[in-house]
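Ticket #4471: structure output looks truncated?

Reporter: J.K.
Steps to reproduce: submitted the chain below (237 residues) through the standard prediction queue, then opened the result file.
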Amino acid sequence: ACRKKTLVYDTNCGWLGYPLDELVENVKRTVGSGYRAVKIKIGLEDFNEDVRRLEAVREAIGTEVLMATDVNNRWDLQKALKCAPVLADFDAAWLEEPLYPFDVRGHAELAAALDTPVLHGENIYDPLMFRDMLAAGAMDIAQPSDMKLSGISRWLEVAHHARVAGKRVVPAGWTMLQIDQHLAAATPHCWMIESIPWIRDIFQEPARFEDGYIVVSDAPGAGTAIKPEALERYAVR
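Returned output as attached by the reporter:
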């Protein structure tokens, strides 16, 4: 491992379906619990409403906490070019998945036009697609998912392509935090990892959260053994 801990951001506090007052309370509670980074979903039909939500969140958490934004592929290039420049006003850590995942030209044009870094890749299944997108300037931050890439070897291949391109990596998939903590520890250019806090409770050896970071365990294995009571609780019958 190249480090013992990696910065972690909370996705659960910022879902698009939360009313504004609940969103603000969520991010306050998240930051109060020790998180130094949050992710806010955007992509409402009325972008002015997205802006109001971002304004409220930034006011609630201050300027020291990182705030990422995620569109979940809801925009086309025209709307992204119109709306996304505003994100710089909120010092957004990144703009995630703005366009159709395989739109290389669109992402490249958007990335070139923005001050906010463009992050995407969680819906890309082939390391060579990452290589080509990175070479085309279509992503500022690579977002490989070890689940969708079918394993850690292909994830590490993507991390290699990102390093060659001089880009950072932020893995996708809060369900894979137990694995991602180890990948991040072995990847110097991995900036952050994603978390939904309650998911840690299902594991026998949950990833350890400490002062805004995930501290990787020295125990053998990936730490993915699930508590029997969690299996019983979430079983589908």
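Triage note (M.O.): checked the attachment and the full token line is present. The helical segments are 20-32, 47-61, 77-83, 104-113, 127-135, 152-165, 177-185, 228-234.
Status: closed, working as intended.
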